[in-house]
Design a protein that fits this description.
It is a single chain. By secondary structure, the chain is mainly α. The protein contains eight helices and three strands, in the order H-H-H-H-H-E-H-H-E-E-H. Helix 6 crosses helix 7. The N and C termini lie far apart (52 Å).
Length: 130
């Protein structure tokens, strides 16, 4: 009965009209089984949004070279310390950078190797497109 409803659904009938639905049935079923819960996909989407700002990308690039304090990042990027601090706060909230105190200064670094890998893969991808 359940299968009858699926095959007689108007929206599925339209999809079947393309003629390739059966060809991709295995892929569709695997995607259906393997797809993470929507909440995790939402979190992933939010993470990628953080990468959607050039200033944050520049900060990540700089930190991929090693630890830096806010004043060094501000000088390197030719920006005010408060603007850099704001971006660092967003990067910390997304767990892309971490911070440690060193005297009166806060020193920032990439949070872990995953961040470096995401960054390197992204760069590799855009360089491949050129």
């Amino acid at each position: 009965m359940e299968e009858d409803r699926r095959t007689h659904s108007p929206e599925l009938s339209e999809q079947s009209a393309c003629g390739c639905r059966e060809e991709h049935a295995g892929t569709m079923e695997k995607a259906r089984r393997e797809m993470p819960p929507i909440e995790k996909l939402y979190d992933l989407s939010e993470l990628f949004k953080v990468f959607g700002d050039t200033t944050r990308i520049r900060i990540l690039w700089a930190l991929s070279e090693g630890e830096m304090c806010v004043c060094d990042l501000a000088e390197l990027l030719d920006m005010g310390q408060s603007a850099v601090s704001h971006q660092l706060r967003l990067l910390r909230q997304s767990r892309l950078v971490r911070c440690r105190r060193e005297g009166k200064s806060s020193v920032y670094a990439l949070d872990d190797d995953h961040v470096q890998k995401i960054f390197q893969l992204g760069m590799s991808h855009i360089e491949e497109l050129r």
